[in-house]
Amino acid sequence: MVSACCGLLIVRAAPAASSHPHETHTYIEQTGEAVKKVTWTLEKADTFILTYLSPFERHVTTTGLDYDTHRWHVTEKNGLSDFTAVRTGASISISGRFRGDPVNKTIPIDGTDWYQASSLSLRGFAVSTDRETVFWTIRSDTLTVHKIKAVKQGSETIDVNGVMKKAVRIKLSLTGLLSHFWKSDYWFSVPEGVFLQFKGPSGPPGSPMTTVTQIQ
Q: What DSSP character marks residue 114?
């Protein structure tokens, strides 16, 4: 999944999803001409554990009930990457193997929330009355950390696999002077807060666009 990252009030909304212990959705992800099917499975207990599985890699993200990320583990089927990122206070430590090379580094941040899996962590914000928020995220292709601003664009009715659904649209951008260089959009169902669709660049300016759409 594309991941997304002041002075704004950080949202810590109560979970809006159903009370079922497991939740599973299927999506089609397309970048340029490349198309793949991914599964999104959420386990709910005293934490949320999201498993995002594609034909090539597996992301497991653990958050608190406020959707703030505690841990992120990525494995690639080709064996080149197998690393874990863990937050401790105002830093995130990453260790393991990344693209065939050892990685062991600590990245300083501030007290702002870490939303590694935006498809989950933006859920509380999507169904809240707040208009904007900010969060940290790590780029999965570079392991660099970025602060992201999320702003609601209003309600829309969108076509999701042939079904018209009511959704709230959220625009993401980098913060500060970099805000014009990267933007993307998420759509979440209302009032459930389920991730429906994503549209945005797959990397820096000039990269192919990525779309992710729920099919089940």
A: B
Q: Examine residue 191 and say whether the peptide bond preceding it is cis (omega within 30 degrees of 0).
A: yes
How far is it, in rounded angstroms, from Cα 93 to Cα 200? 27
Sign of CA dihedral 216, 187, 173, 89: negative
Alpha-carbon gap, residue 174 to 147, rounded angstroms: 6
The 10 Å CB-count burial string (b at 16+, else e) for 185-196 is ebbbbbebbbbb
3-state secondary structure of 81: coil
**Per-residue pLDDT, 15:** 41
Compute the radius of gyration of the chain from its Cα atoms.
Answer: 16
User: 8 by DSSP, 3-state: which?
Assistant: coil
Query: What's the per-residue H, E or C state across 128-180?
Result: CCCCEEEEEEECCCCCCEEEEEEEEEEEEEEEECCEEEEEEEEEEEECHHHCC
Q: Which residues contact 19 (CB under 8 A, 6 or more apart)?
A: 44
Instruction: Report which of 169, 150, 148, 124 is spatially closest to residue 12, judged by C-alpha positions.
Output: 124
* Residue 124 in tokens: 């509380």
Are 74 and 59 in contact by the 8 Å Cβ rule? The answer is: yes
What pLDDT digit, counting tens, does each position of 77-123 carry? 999 999 999 999 999 999 999 999 999 999 999 999 999 999 999 99
